[in-house]
Specification:
single chain, 257 residues, alpha/beta, eight-stranded parallel β-barrel
């Protein structure tokens, strides 16, 4: 955690890593907030965490100064507005395929004149006690991360990355692999070429690029490409891996005898 606003931290292109949160539970939020990750990516797309769950999650993460990027279920103004009004530090928008969709995502997250977000950041402004200051800084301090997950998006990279207000392009490797007609999980030549293309275009427009990595061992390769924003694992993975490691160590100790 850098102490910088999340958007500034992301735009700095200094390598950072976050973990996914997929369980709408205060205890999980508090525990993940103490992992020393750079941020948490709370998933509202493929997990049962609608924006109103942030009312309980954010006080728990804020207690430990952990920034939260919230992935909305879809590129819709009511989802983006709700997440930010609750106090999320930024949004991730899935399946952004065109410049028009990128313009919408940014517009939904920004106050006029840069966008069309409506005034009413009830919790984010400490129940309107700091509303003017919040609105003054929100457009620059709240991160907007757009996911590149299809062939169509790859064909429109320049148009998407050039939209003012985009802080990062984030590759969704599973959906991108599916769009290529291949099984997710591997680092195929086609997928790696796509990652390099995203990194190159992001650098061209002075924004960051990133990807969810299936293995920490992949990081050096992606960092060399120029990617800087990473996610790896979730509380589901962490519990499974930890429990399996204990079980293996226990059973191996008896086999060794």
């Amino acid at each position: 955690m850098t102490g910088l606003p999340l958007s500034e931290s992301i735009r700095s292109r200094k390598p950072q890593i976050g973990g996914w949160m997929q369980t709408p539970n205060i205890m999980i939020a508090e525990i993940l907030a103490q992992t020393n990750l750079d941020f948490l990516l709370v998933d509202g797309e493929h997990s049962p965490i609608p924006p109103n769950s942030l009312l309980n999650i954010l006080p728990a993460t804020e207690r430990y100064g952990m920034p939260v990027l919230y992935r909305v279920a879809w590129n819709r103004i009511e989802l983006i507005k709700a997440a930010l009004d609750h106090g999320a530090n930024g949004i991730m928008v899935p399946m952004v395929n065109t410049s028009a969709e990128a313009i919408d995502a940014v517009s939904f997250a920004k106050y006029p004149p840069s966008g069309k977000r409506g005034s009413g950041a009830w919790r984010a402004s400490n129940y309107y006690q700091t509303d003017a200051d919040y609105r003054k800084n929100a457009n620059s301090s709240l991160a907007v991360v757009l996911q590149i997950e299809t062939r169509e998006a790859l064909n429109n990279l320049d148009e998407i990355a050039s939209i003012p207000g985009v802080d990062a392009l984030f590759i969704g490797p599973a959906d991108l692999a599916l769009s290529f007609g291949i099984e997710p999980g591997g680092l195929t030549t086609e997928l790696l070429d796509a990652c390099q293309a995203v990194a190159n275009v992001a650098k061209k427009y002075g924004i960051a690029s990133g990807i969810d990595v299936a293995s920490i061992d992949y990081l050096p390769r992606f960092k060399k490409m120029g990617l800087s924003l990473f996610t790896h694992g979730s509380e589901l993975d962490f519990v499974l891996q930890g429990g399996r490691a204990v079980a293996k160590k226990f059973h191996d100790s008896f086999v060794a005898e």
